[in-house]
Amino acid sequence: MRIALFTETFLPKVDGIVTRLRHTVDYLQRHGNQVLVISPDGGITEYKGAKVYGVTGFPMPLYPELKLALPRPAIGQVLEEFKPHIIHVVNPAVLGLAGIFYGKILNIPLVASYHTHLPQYLQHYGLGMLEGLLWELLKAGHNQATLNLCTSTAMMEELTAHGIERVNLWQRGVDTETFHPDLASVEMRSHLSQNHPKSPLLLYVGRLSVEKEIERIKPILAAIPDARLALVGDGPHRQPLEQHFFGTNTHFVGYLSGKELASAFASADAFIFPSRTETLGLVLLEAMAAGCPVVAARSGGIPDIVADGVNGYLFEPEADILGAIAATLRLLQHKQEREIIRQNARREAERWGWASATQQLQTYYQKIIHSDQLESAA
User: Which option is the CATH number for 181-350: 3.30.565.60, 3.30.40.230, 3.40.50.2000, 3.40.1190.10?
Assistant: First the structure.
């Protein structure tokens, strides 16, 4: 198969969407497919044998880490040369609209996937009054697709409730070889805790942005006076967060990747994740694969991953933070229970390898292409 993949974000950016796309492209290429990635220009022209066509973009005003790349006629020329059997638009917002347009113009079957819960993001940027309009725009775009994929059952239900049709699940995936409990180390624990390795170590990994609600971790930290908090990642909200956590035992670590990131997960006592805007929360699966107990908001796609009291803990995000404090204290105070949670978390992660997730996607592609060919022949 020849697959044209339109995405609003790709390497060198680091986030959960890019992680999924990296594994997807790698798997598809290794299994005899040809992939063309069309994304905002990040200086990369090839990945795992797939051509990357970069479109010049400009920083998004509210989120400078993201580039907005506008559709242009040259994209149509690139597609006509590549002759894709199928187009897949990931989070169609700006550049992805070109994928939808050319799919219709060139009569190429179209798949769309939903990874970022943009309507909820609006609330955190003071633009909540635009939520209804955004849902209408999302519906108009997604309903052009033969298939709309979500990464959790909660998002399937929400998209369906807002009038988006032909919705199905693209199962979760995690690299259980890279993320492993055996990578726990005293050196990493000392680094994350700023040379306090014997103190309870709380961890957050992800973008430092408004919608992640990282401020909600501060009361948990305050309730455990000897605890240390490591915030791994970066983003546009870093400076306000540094002010918010000033005077606390908080270390802004910056980006980690690969084995270093896996070691950070494996070396922490609890992974705290207060976000209420997650379509899945890939980072939770990475923490679980590394055997790091999770304390997360019961919201979005998170309950698809975390079974409360079995492989992690959930707290009610709309209530006060007492549930999150109680769950974290329970993890820290009950060593035997913590070990059971660790083991169960690892077992859950082992069920969701990337190969299975991408094989499922490849099967979706094949069925759609076959059905399109039958319709054309009729």
Answer: 3.40.50.2000
